[in-house]
């Protein structure tokens, strides 16, 4: 497995493709690009994080960048800190939902977004050429800031628009998967009046279950919700930018509902456009149509969604994987924002999670991945686009075809030599038939 280098940073297997030397070089290159301006640093709870933090601090200081180290903190906390404390950039040491043997560096720019492709290329070039900036005097310092997570949580609370008093005494089970969400999420829920049952709540980075917040990994949370007779279960990924939800029956509702319910929550109070990537469920279109607003569709990738939100002044946006963005907090996906929006919807309507889910149309969503070289994927996209000419096509990231009874999206992964095929329709059979039609047209 090679070191994965993308626009938002690098990921690798610790001690194999990702070593302190690699982290030092990338941090030194990013510090060079930032010309010695202030940088904020955080890490998720992985035990390898400390080692990489030392290397990243070293590279940034060598380039003349003063470093504010948040220690273990959520990725959205870094986004909020960049905005409020005016940092020139941020580095988060995390491999997000990847298993424990992985780690990575995620770079954020002065807005909190992944660097644009030009800047990402510059970082790689500076590293490849070894043309680092090195200060020889006036050495910058590393400072600590242990309160950034609390300030972030306070900002999300302050942005609430619904009286939270109906939430008082509501029992909530939180699964922080021993990640960066452990520290500030329980207090956030307590501030709302909820009674919190916290599982996997020590930020040890030793994940109690595979850390991606998917149905198969959340059986412990489902069981805990039933045992506690809780109203809802929330699951975060290790850097707490994604959120998945379990209903009052202890059923995992599917990660696509996090954004759909958050959009329903916001749009029931305020009108404005919403943004989602092309692989996100049509539920967002149904919610937007219900409230008479438009959906801006973007290529897959958090930064694409965030840039579209900034350009269109969107009131909410995100991704179907449980990532919700509220620009009033930061342009970063934020599990606290997702929790806040879903609980505001519960408080405002008096409905349970199960009732709210039932009020949305139910679709079957199929996700497939096929190993495939890049050129083969490009040819497949062309062949499918030709076969569906005359239909509603979006070509901004592979090809998405919207039909009356469903949609299908064919694209190349940003990080691996695989093709992703997603289809959504009213039934599982109909979604499978859509995948079949597209694969036949692609000759796959
Ligand atoms: Mg994540």
Which structural traits does this protein have?
binds magnesium ion; globular; alpha/beta; Alpha-D-Glucose-1,6-Bisphosphate, Chain A, domain 3; 20 strands; five-stranded antiparallel sheet; seven-stranded mixed sheet
What features would you describe in this structure?
The protein has four domains: 4-147, Alpha-D-Glucose-1,6-Bisphosphate, subunit A, domain 3 (Alpha-D-Glucose-1,6-Bisphosphate, Chain A, domain 3); 168-253, 3-Layer(aba) Sandwich (Alpha-D-Glucose-1,6-Bisphosphate, Chain A, domain 3), CATH 3.40.120.10; 255-361, Alpha-D-Glucose-1,6-Bisphosphate, Chain A, domain 3; 364-442, TATA-Binding Protein, CATH 3.30.310. A hairpin with a 2-residue loop joins strand 18 (399-403) and strand 19. It contains 14 helices and 20 strands. The two termini are 25 Å apart. By secondary structure, the chain is of the alpha/beta class. The strands form four sheets. Strands 1-2-6-5-3-4-7 form a seven-stranded mixed β-sheet, sandwiched between helices. A five-stranded antiparallel β-sheet has the order 16-20-19-18-17, with helices on one face. Strands 9-8-10-11 form a four-stranded mixed β-sheet, sandwiched between helices. The model has no long low-confidence stretch (mean pLDDT 96). Helix 8 packs parallel to helix 9 (283-290).
């Amino acid at each position: 497995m090679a070191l994965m280098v993308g626009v938002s940073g690098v990921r690798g297997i610790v001690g194999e493709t990702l070593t302190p030397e690699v982290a030092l070089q990338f941090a030194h290159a990013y510090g060079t690009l930032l010309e010695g301006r202030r940088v904020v640093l955080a890490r998720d709870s992985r035990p390898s994080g400390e080692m990489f933090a030392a290397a990243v601090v070293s590279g940034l200081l060598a380039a003349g960048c003063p470093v504010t180290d948040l220690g273990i903190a959520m990725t959205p906390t870094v986004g909020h800190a960049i905005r409020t404390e005016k940092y020139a950039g941020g580095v988060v040491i995390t491999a997000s939902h990847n298993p424990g043997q992985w780690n990575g560096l995620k770079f954020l720019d002065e807005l909190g977004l992944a660097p644009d492709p030009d800047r990402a290329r510059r970082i790689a070039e500076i590293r490849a050429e070894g043309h680092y900036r090195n200060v020889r005097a006036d050495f910058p310092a590393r400072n600590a800031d242990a309160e950034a997570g609390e300030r972030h949580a306070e900002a999300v609370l302050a942005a609430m628009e619904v009286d939270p008093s109906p939430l008082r005494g509501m029992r909530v089970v939180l699964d922080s998967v021993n990640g960066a969400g452990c520290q500030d999420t329980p207090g956030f829920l307590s501030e709302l009046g909820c009674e919190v049952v916290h599982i996997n709540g020590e930020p040890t980075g030793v994940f109690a279950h595979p850390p991606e917040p998917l149905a198969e990994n959340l059986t412990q949370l489902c069981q805990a919700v039933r045992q506690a007779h809780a109203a809802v279960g929330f699951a975060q990924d290790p850097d707490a930018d994604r959120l998945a939800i379990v209903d009052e029956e202890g059923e995992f509702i599917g990660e696509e509902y996090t954004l759909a319910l958050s959009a329903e929550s916001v749009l029931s109070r305020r009108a404005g456009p919403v943004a989602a990537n092309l692989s996100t469920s049509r539920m967002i279109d149904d919610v937007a149509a219900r409230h008479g607003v438009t959906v801006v569709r973007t290529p897959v990738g958090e930064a694409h969604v965030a840039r579209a939100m900034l350009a269109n002044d969107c009131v909410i946006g995100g991704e179907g994987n449980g990532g919700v963005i509220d620009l009033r907090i930061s342009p970063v996906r934020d599990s606290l924002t997702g929790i806040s929006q879903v609980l505001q919807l519960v408080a405002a309507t008096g409905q349970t999670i199960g009732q709210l889910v039932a009020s949305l149309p139910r679709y079957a969503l199929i996700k497939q991945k096929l190993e495939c070289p890049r050129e083969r994927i490009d040819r497949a996209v062309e062949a499918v686009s030709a076969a569906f000419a005359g239909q509603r096509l979006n070509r901004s990231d592979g090809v998405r075809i919207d039909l009356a009874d469903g949609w299908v999206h064919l694209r190349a992964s940003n990080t691996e030599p695989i093709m992703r095929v997603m289809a959504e329709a009213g039934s599982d059979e109909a979604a499978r038939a859509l995948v079949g039609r597209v694969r036949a047209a692609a000759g796959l």
